[in-house]
Amino acid sequence: MSLSLEQELKGNAYPGRGIVIGRSADGSKAVTAYFIMGRSQNSRNRVFVEDGEGIRTQAFDPSKLEDPSLIIYAPVRVLGNRTIVTNGDQTDTIYDGMDKELTFEQSLRSREFEPDGPNYTPRISGVMHIEGGAFDYSMSILKSNNGNPECCNRYTFSYDRPVAGEGHFIHTYMHDGNPLPSFEGEPKLVEIPDDIDAFTNLVWTSLNEDNKVSLFVRFIDIATGKYETRIVNKNK
Fold first, then answer.
1. What pTM, to 2 d.p., does this model score?
2. What is the pLDDT of residues 73-82, one digit of tens each?
3. Which domains does the chain have, with CATH numbers?
4. Were 48 and a residue from 5, 14, 156, 214 both cysteine, which residue would form a disulfide, CB within 3.0 to 4.6 Å?
């Protein structure tokens, strides 16, 4: 049974950063969404801006930027017929790895969870592959071993013939807390609609008002590769 993405988001004040990938209900579009949230001033002081075919994060107020290391990065990059979406600078690691003929999973072997103890925020990543009218995608999470940074647990989930109207949702934290508990289990099966604006609105309005920061949504036509993008920033 697929879950309601709206209910999943409304029922969790702090899922952290999240990636949704799937196929539109009419089967014609490959769909992705990426959102960021923040509890600290540094995390909340961000916007998404377009950067070539992808996006990057930038400080909304540069004078308030503290440590840029884990918050300024390119969440989305495009390499040929692949669209890469992640919650950190591992976007570049995957891009460079795939450019050298490594697989998605192999590219991430050199990375692990973020060095932000005691949270050890998981690195979540996705890649969408569209070729010859076919679409498949994979998602990954690299996380500490139940909060123990001595061991990195690596999980890759691949979906080779996505069903129309279905997608998967993975996020960094199970819920709010101190320390923040890492996501557990498989990416959640969620419903994907046809309309990009309705989907963008559903995700944005369902995210916790205090903690949400930015949202990126893209619908890619599987037949042509042409895409539409929406970016929503709380900071304006």
1. 0.98
2. 999 999 999 9
3. 5-228 (3.60.20.20)
4. 214
